[in-house]
Design a protein that fits this description.
With about 170 residues, the chain is of the alpha+beta class. It has 6 helices and 8 strands; from the N terminus they run H-E-E-H-E-E-H-E-H-E-E-H-H-E. The strands form 3 sheets. Strands 1-2-4 form a 3-stranded antiparallel sheet, sandwiched between helices.
């Protein structure tokens, strides 16, 4: 009888709201994420993923109420977000932005800006000198961020943000 009760509790936990856990592994291995979502809003699942993984996640408003069904066990954050986004038919992008950027508080504006940049059809750009002390780097369809050393990103005051968008909306 005790076995059936335990089995019932396990099944009940699987059917109820999503559970998310994250475990920090040695520094040479990525953070692993686990979650289960059954007919749950993507916003709720992402809240739990952000809390457990300590990743900065931003969700565009048009994607917030999309319900998903998915199961992820011990995957790096990139792969976990890929599974989550596939379940909700949404997209994610990892971007680096200044830690004090006002866009960090405006996910819809951030999504529009990133879509605009991603849609540029002209050659890649590097603007180095302007009348303001700013520069711009845009490299289309290239994994440029991976080539920029972590130390340089930190020295520039950049933080990683995962932006989840509903590009079909």
């Amino acid at each position: 009888m005790t076995r059936y009760f335990i089995l019932f509790l396990v099944l009940l936990a699987c059917v109820c709201n999503a559970q998310v856990t994250a475990a920090i592994t040695p520094t040479d291995k990525p953070l692993l994420v686990t979650f289960h979502a059954t007919d749950e809003k993507i916003s709720s699942v992402l809240d739990r993923v952000a809390e457990t993984s300590k990743a900065r996640l931003m969700l565009e408003k048009t994607a917030a109420d999309i319900k998903i069904n998915t199961w992820v066990k011990d995957l790096p954050i990139d792969e976990a977000l890929t599974a989550l986004c596939k379940a909700g038919d949404v997209e994610w992008r990892k971007i680096y932005i200044k830690a004090d950027s006002p866009l960090l508080k405006k996910p819809d504006s951030m999504a529009a800006t990133v879509r605009l940049m991603a849609g540029m059809q002209y050659p890649d750009i590097l603007i180095d000198k302007t009348s303001k002390p700013e520069s711009l780097v845009h490299i289309a369809n290239q994994p440029a961020v991976d080539a920029i050393p972590e130390k340089m990103r930190k020295d520039l005051g950049m933080v990683a943000v995962y932006l989840i968008t509903n590009d079909k909306a």
